[in-house]
Amino acid sequence: MAAFLLAKRVRDMKFGKSEANPSANKDDVNSVTIGDITISQFGDEGVWLDDVEGEGGSFREADLADHIKAFFNANF
Known about the structure:
Layout: H1 2-11, E1 14-17, E2 30-34, E3 37-42, E4 46-51, E5 56-60, H2 61-75
Antiparallel strand pairs: 1-2, 2-3, 3-4, 4-5
């Protein structure tokens, strides 16, 4: 069941421009949306994450990369 849900989420991946990132004009910042979360570049070493309800914030890109790697390692 978890594999099915993960596969469904991947189909929900969309590439576009950020509409909520406060660091730049929305036409200037590329983004990827996976499910309900949009990720875009934020400054030189950061990422901006926001959800469909408008909650969001900036995080260190290295920290997000560490979490993705941990998820990957735990599942493969």
